[in-house]
Amino acid sequence: MTIDLNFYATLVALVGVLLLGRWVISKSKFLQDYNIPEPVVGGIIIAIGIFCLLKYSGIKFSFNDSLREPLMLAFYASIGLSADFTSLRKGGRILFIFLMCVALLLFLQNITGIFIAKLMGINPLIGLLAGSITMSGGHGTGASWAEIFKANPYNLNAGLEIALACATFGLIAGGLIGGPISHYLIRKYHLQTISHLKEESPPQGFEKPEKERLITAYSFVQSLALIALALLFGTLLSEYFKSSSFTLPTFVWCLFIGAILRNLLSLTKIHQVFDREVSVIGNVSLSLFLAFALMTINLSELVALALPMFAILTIQVILMVAFAIFITFRFCGKDYDAAVLAAGHCGFGLGATPTAMANIQTITQHYGMSHIAFIIVPLVGAFFIDIINAIIISTTLQLPFF
Description:
Blueprint: E1 2-4, H1 7-26, H2 29-33, H3 38-57, E2 60-62, H4 68-81, H5 88-119, H6 124-135, H7 138-150, H8 159-188, H9 217-241, H10 250-268, H11 275-295, H12 306-331, H13 336-350, H14 353-367, H15 371-396
Parallel strand pairs: 1-2
Helix pairs in contact: 1-3, 1-11, 3-11, 4-9, 4-10, 4-11, 5-6, 5-12, 5-15, 6-7, 6-8, 6-12, 7-8, 8-12, 8-13, 8-14, 9-10, 12-13, 13-14, 13-15, 14-15
Main location: membrane
Membrane topology: Multi-pass membrane protein
Transmembrane segments: 7-25, 40-59, 94-117, 162-186, 214-234, 246-265, 277-297, 303-327, 339-360, 372-393
């Protein structure tokens, strides 16, 4: 028996997934400590329930998917609208060095994943999904590329299940290894913060919330209009270049258009983008998109791929540990700030920006403040990594493996 849920019933189900996830997280210290997203928790619980109903009673659910793509595109448009390139000056030379380290890791994650997949005789696309797409991209990027890989010419039907499993694994691993690596570096090299020499230095960036603007109906419409423009021109460009040799996924075009809009408006001083409001719209879109993606995954397709996926992900964690110690830490100055940046890199190199922020907050609360880390990590993790990752993934797909 199949139960068809229309648009409104599907929307109720999506919101229900988020509310369920929030309630479960409120009861679990583990889920709170490792910043597991609400749609991941709620979505997996519902997916297990749907799987059990299908297996033991033959009841199947069919959801209306008309919201899925617009929600995904709105999330990436919000990332682009948050990309204020003038903020690059705040981080100075260290920011550019850190960006180069991030870009190098993205490339190595993809090559590692593809190599191990080929070695184990499985589809190299699985290795790519277990690379920078989910390790540095997280659930949103993983689910987005999985949709691309489901279609021709890739036809990877289990892509969504693989992507979300990898992203969840990476999220937990990123929170587990960041703190210990930073502790190790600080103790091995006897590093000390210089914050006690500059007690008069005021908090910066995410160390202290700035004065907030009120979200009003008019300002919300303005932010929504910018996202709508990014979606419109992004989809038009995607359609225009579809038949050419220069092709990018639609969500990448929306991200780029969002970034262009943001910086053109800043340059011409026509309009100041309301970052917090854009972030709210983007986060809501991502949460609802992930809720749909997770509650509709086919868990049975993961069983056959469990062992090779675990092998690839374990090697990715080892790569992240080695990279943070021998590359990120060394090239960023081999000082206390570099040790904190290494912890942050572990956070979004395997998981997400909230995990990176939790890592550096834990370290700085114990050893002392690192102003530069609280400027650079949010800047890179919030949007620059997604832009760089989109370019590197698209470039990797041009390799002969595919």
